Amino acid sequence: MYTGIDTRYYPDKKKVLGTDRKGEEALSELSFSGFSPESVEFLTKERNITGIAIDTPSIDYGTASE
């Protein structure tokens, strides 16, 4: 999935990562666009694909603590 996050916000770490903190204290504040479990299930079962990719720092959707 192309979100454009790298071309719109890079190198602003806060806009790319959701926080400008580092290390463990940043984990609960990290936030990226991503795939819901339901969309991944649909894509892999209904569209005959074997994998997905995204241009964000993580494939998790929402905040990293969810």
Structure, briefly:
The chain is mainly alpha-helical and 66 residues long. Helix content is 30%, strand content 6%.
> Based on DSSP secondary structure assignment, what is the total number of beta strands?
2
Uncertain residue segments:
none
**Fraction of helical residues:** 25-40%
DSSP helical segment count: 3
Biggest sheet strand order reads: 1-2
Largest sheet report: 2 strands, antiparallel
Average pLDDT taken over every residue? 82
Terminal CA distance reads 21 Å
Structural Rg: 13 Å
What's the helix-strand series?
HHEHE
Taken as a percent bin, the fraction of beta residues is 5-15%
Structural class: mainly alpha
Shape: elongated
Number of separate structural domains: 1
